Amino acid sequence: MKRANAIALAFGLALVAVGVWWRTAPAAVPPLAPPLAAAPHVIFRGDGDAAEIAAARGALERVFATPTGARAFERIASGALAGPLTIELNRRGANFTEYRVPGRELGETIFFDPSSHPLVETAQGPAPAYAETVLAHELGHAVFKLTSEQEVIDAVENPVREQLGLPLRSRF
Ligand SMILES: [Zn+2]
């Protein structure tokens, strides 16, 4: 084979490779947290039926699919926390993160009532909170270990609200 032909062949193969890559490349950047990968790192328990657990899991996965939520998921998956993230479902309107050491050290258990929809002050007036925003808020406590409500709102809840196209929370 002549040198020129060899170069042309190599160039042709490179184009084919680029073509294959181009066709298989995803249209958008995939979320850092594929839904199934979340399973071993998040435990659901407490007072919830299969539909409520599925709804809570879906809401949490939509949070993990945002850039801010992906940082939370990375932190959970990295093993940096003392335990797995645990979502303790309840039907008594309890939405909070339990302290491991009262007033000092936050744990990884989030109490969550999926039916509660607490009213929060937003840029568009009082609005019932979606499961996603309640969970995003609690990730600020349970995963990022923020104890200040304002810090949780500024660093985690509002960025997730913005990334999900929801009105920003104006205060705690
Ligand atoms: Zn809080």
Could you name the key traits of this structure?
globular, alpha/beta, 20% strand, 7 strands, four-stranded mixed beta sheet, single chain, 172 residues, binds zinc ion, 46% helix
Structure explained in plain terms:
There is one protein chain. The chain has six helices and seven strands; from the N terminus they run H-H-E-H-H-E-E-E-E-E-H-H-E. The strands form two sheets. It has a four-stranded mixed β-sheet, covered by helices on one side. It is α/β, with parallel strands linked by helices. The protein is globular, with a radius of gyration of 22 Å. The protein has one domain. About 5% of the residues have low confidence. Strand 5 and strand 6 form a beta hairpin. Helix content is 46%, strand content 20%. The structure holds zinc ion. The site of zinc ion has 4 residues, from helix 5 and helix 6.
Shape: globular
Would you identify the regions where 5 or more consecutive residues have pLDDT less than 50? 15-23
| Structural domain tally | 1
Radius of gyration: 22 Å
Summarize the structure.
Helix content is 46%, strand content 20%. It has helices at residues 3-24, 35-38, 50-64, 67-77, 131-142, 149-163; strands at 42-46, 85-89, 96-101, 105-112, 119-122, 125-128, 169-171. The site of zinc ion (ZN) has 4 residues, from α5 and α6.
Task: Give the topology, please.
Layout: H1 3-24, H2 35-38, E1 42-46, H3 50-64, H4 67-77, E2 85-89, E3 96-101, E4 105-112, E5 119-122, E6 125-128, H5 131-142, H6 149-163, E7 169-171
Parallel strand pairs: 1-2, 2-4
Antiparallel strand pairs: 3-4, 5-6, 5-7
Bound molecules: zinc ion.
Zinc ion binds next to helix 5 and helix 6.
